[in-house]
Amino acid sequence: MTKILLKNGQVGCALGLYDADVLIEDGKIVNTFDWGQKHEVDETIDCKGKIILPGVIDVHVHLREPGQKYKEDWTTGTKAAVAGGVTTICDMPNNVPPILTVKDLEEKRKLVAKKAYCNYGLYMGFDGKNISEINKAENIPAVKVYVANSTGNMGVGTETIAELFKKCNKFIVAHAEDEGMIKEKALEYLAEYGARIDDDGKLIVPKESEIDPSVHSKIRSADCAASAVKFLCELAKENGKRLHVAHVSSDQELTMLLEYQNLDEAGQPRITCEVAPHHLLLSDDDYATFGNLIKVNPPVRSKMDLFTMWKALKFGEVHIIATDHAPHTLVEKEQGYMDCPSGIPELDTLLPILLNAVNDGGLEMKEVVKLCCESPAKIFGMKNKGQVEAGFDADLVVVDMEKMFEVKNEKLFTKCKWSPYAGSTFKGCPVMTFVNGELVYKNGKIVGKKVGKEVQFEKTV
Asked: What number is the average pLDDT over the span 299-306?
């Protein structure tokens, strides 16, 4: 049983920073100690001038395996995770084929076992008719429901979603956009390009090569998202269910969520939400620079919405930051608007973005710990995750707040090898990442083995 001492660092928690050494043994945190205490250890790592944080928990990623390994696989995706300070991920079910049955889930478990550099959980999806399968599933973070179609075309009707809330025994995570409103707006805003609906109900756009990508933010507008949020919150309230709304992006959605906010017996919110980095950094003004590279669902919003999302983080109205890491190849993203898939890869850059915000005064380190470590673990019922405390898993990231991180496409670990932040420099970045007590990433290189394990989830309904 290897003993490792991380000495002379500052430890981060949801209350702030404090000076402490961290002792690790057999994959667990033994305890934190005042600087200078003597311990018999196998290895000592000096963290002077650095901060020791709980490993980041990203509850929203798409690693594309099974079915689309050419975009990302579990080895490249989890390398990107640990490089970005992420020690636990929850992978979405919109694979090819989608994860809809217990058999699908077990096959995916076998497929990804021993391929991951970080810990992981696996969602199941909802297709409108698989509630019994969902109820039989064991040890999943939640069931994912798409109110509108996104990557994978798993959008389902409102009637079946109502049934899910009535009969499902699992925590529900939702992609909240109104499919009917999106279709109406697509016809409206693509009319100048000759848009029409053919006899099979398919949208045809004869002049699609001329489409300005910025139309995406008009078609999938904030009111489309707010409408779906209201619908979901009503169902959650009516059925006494907990609900987590993914990638909230606008003031309208937040306003709706706050109307339905209520607490459970433990004082925790029954309806929670997350924000993605691209909804904190990119606005609809950026289409002029990036075009379809920043096509994402829900889309980037106005600069005013960006301000609203930052304010919501400060006031505790958003509970989690999660990447919605959604890699596609550059060839795919360089297609015209109608053919270009939606999604942005962000695992490599997650913690550098947030540490830069701390250096700029936009966030405090204690807020980063709460949003990225403690709250995800609590909301999703992850055992022994999210804190630097005795008995917790030794999932840790050591960060250097002075080190500059320049985003270079060729240096990224994600298989797709591109980022909208390429050319940007962030101040503050991970320099070491430990997963289950093992050093897996150090100073830009993968140095460890694939030690990731499936997370154990407590029931969160």
From this structure: 97
**pLDDT, the chain, mean:** 94
**Structural domain count, the chain:** 1
26 is catalytic: no
| Long-range CB contacts (within 8 A, 24+) of 360-368 | 362/310, 363/313, 363/314, 364/16, 365/12, 365/16, 365/17, 365/51, 365/53, 366/12, 366/13, 366/14, 366/15, 366/16, 366/17, 367/313, 367/314, 368/12, 368/53
What are φ and ψ of residue 32, in 5° steps? -110, 145
Question: 426-446, pLDDT tens digit by residue?
Answer: 999 999 999 999 999 999 999
Q: Is residue 318 part of a domain?
A: yes
In a domain, 432, yes or no: no
Instruction: Examine residue 62 and state whether it is found in any structural domain, yes or no.
Output: yes
* CATH number for position 119: 3.20.20.140
pLDDT tens digit string along 380-414?
A: 999 999 999 999 999 999 999 999 999 999 999 99
Q: Which of 324, 348, 393, 395 is catalytic?
A: 324
Query: Could you give phi then psi for residue 144, rounded to 5 degrees?
Result: -100, 125
**Pairing label, strands 425-435, 56-61:** unpaired
Range of the domain at 80: 55-379
The two structure tokens encoding residue 407: 């985003």
pLDDT at 192: 86
Q: Is residue 4 part of a domain?
A: no
